[in-house]
Specification:
Length: about 450
């Protein structure tokens, strides 16, 4: 049997063509329907057809409800209606308790993107990178796209061009603003609106922890292994060797794979779970909410995942990080000469684990648990990457409501297609030139 393979780039092109064809057909069909409705309703149908939704939140996965809920709660408190569109059929947002947050499952994968590509809204708010890069295209009827980072670290750790076509990006630290501006300059892109709002979901975690009076059993220390995913992550580089070394210690071990690994690296995970099954010494954790597993753990081992900073800065605990020889080829960081804030900051928050030091893992864990210097450095990191501590949701809600009102008052201000195409060509030419310089 012949198996047809289409690479992501070709698939995106074919999808774009399909969207164009369907869009043209849809436009004609909607025009016919609108005319019929106009005749039957005396013009009321046309007005209803043209009505924009003030604010749409899009989430490509249920795990991002923790990022959006604090903002949704604040918007609901102010009586501001939101259409919350999700690509997860079991997203907690669909059963949210907020009167003004209207959850809707819009299908998974390309079905979701098709709906998004024809939205009619003032503002679309998302944490999904890749707008106008692959399947998710800017809708001509959306005035403004706003991105919020979902991790407290470098904005350049997205896959390449992840935030290029957003109109605004909400961030948590000055170093992220510097990174975006440098990318815009290198690629010849117009400046986005950049606003430092903070980290609403980490504010929620901190408040939840402060109110939690339940104590943990500390008779045995717990080590949490929570790698990222991809070819530069712990499991791809070291396989099960790190679990073998952890089981040689006296600690309880929790392994929590990155959610993306479940779909992208299932074969590898299944093999590891078979080799290292659940036992009284080791457990695998896939909870959607990571609050309890982070609270239970005494030290965290990871690579370049944002959970390193959640664990260190919210739970005030030490971390162990690995430098897996990161391959920047697919990431925005490839464009920049500056060292990542993540890699500059991690040595102050915990110890590095190298392949050569695997056999000393037990002593490295002991050092992290007992050395006071790591606790002293955590506040510096908070100051650098956690703006508006405790008030992030308020800052985001203020911004979104004001932006919606501004756009409603002045009307659509989308970029023209020919202007956008010129910008695309300019930054692609710069990319080619930079590649030649790096050779």
């Amino acid at each position: 049997m012949l198996i047809l393979y289409i690479d992501p780039g070709t698939g995106s092109m074919l999808f774009a063509i399909l969207i164009g064809v369907l869009g043209a057909a849809g436009f004609v069909f909607r025009n016919v329907i609108a005319k019929v409705r106009f005749m039957l309703t005396g013009g009321k149908g046309k007005k209803e057809e043209m009505k924009k939704q003030p604010l749409v939140i899009f989430s490509d996965d249920k795990r991002y409800w923790k990022n959006f809920e604090p903002v949704c709660r604040e918007l609901d408190k102010r009586g501001f209606d939101v259409a919350y569109m999700t690509a997860s059929e079991d997203d907690p947002a669909l059963n949210n308790p907020y009167e003004h947050i209207h959850g809707e499952f819009i299908g998974a994968g390309n079905k979701a993107f098709y709906k998004l590509n024809f939205l009619n809204a003032n503002v679309v708010f998302a944490t999904t990178p890749g707008l106008d890069v692959y399947q998710w295209k800017r809708s001509k009827n959306v005035d403004y796209y706003v991105h919020i980072a979902h991790m407290p670290n470098d904005i350049t750790l997205y896959r390449m061009f992840g935030i290029d076509y957003y109109d605004a990006v909400l961030l948590s630290g000055d170093y992220q603003i510097d990174q975006v501006r440098k990318l815009e300059e290198l690629r010849g892109l117009p400046e986005k609106e950049l606003v430092k709002v903070g980290l609403p979901y980490m504010d929620d975690m901190a408040a939840r922890l402060a109110a939690d009076t339940e104590t943990e059993d500390k008779s045995v220390k717990t080590v949490l292994l929570a790698p990222s995913w991809g070819k530069s992550a712990i499991f791809a580089r070291f396989g099960g060797r790190i679990i073998t070394e952890l089981l040689k210690t006296d600690y309880h071990i929790i392994v929590r794979p990155h959610p993306q690994s479940v779909s992208s690296e299932k074969e590898m995970l299944d093999k590891l779970m078979k080799e290292f099954p659940d036992s009284d010494r080791l457990e695998w954790n896939y909870d959607n909410d990571n609050y309890n597993v982070l609270k239970r753990s005494d030290v965290l081992i990871s690579d370049f995942s944002g959970v390193l900073f959640e664990f260190s800065l919210v739970y005030d605990k030490p971390v162990i990080y690995t430098n897996t020889g990161f391959d920047w080829a697919e990431y925005d960081q490839w464009w920049l000469e500056d060292e990542l804030w993540t890699f500059k900051t991690l040595p102050s928050l915990g110890a590095e684990l190298t392949e050569e030091s695997f056999e000393q893992l037990a002593s490295i864990i002991d050092e992290c648990l007992n050395d006071p210097k790591y606790a002293q450095n955590r506040q510096t990191a908070r100051d650098e990457t956690w703006a508006n501590y405790g008030h992030g949701a308020e800052a985001v809600a203020d911004y979104l409501i004001n932006k919606c009102e501004e756009l409603k008052n002045k009307g659509s201000d989308n970029k023209k297609p020919d202007e956008k195409e010129a910008k695309n060509k300019k930054f692609k030419d710069k990319k080619s030139k930079r590649k030649e310089e790096k050779k």
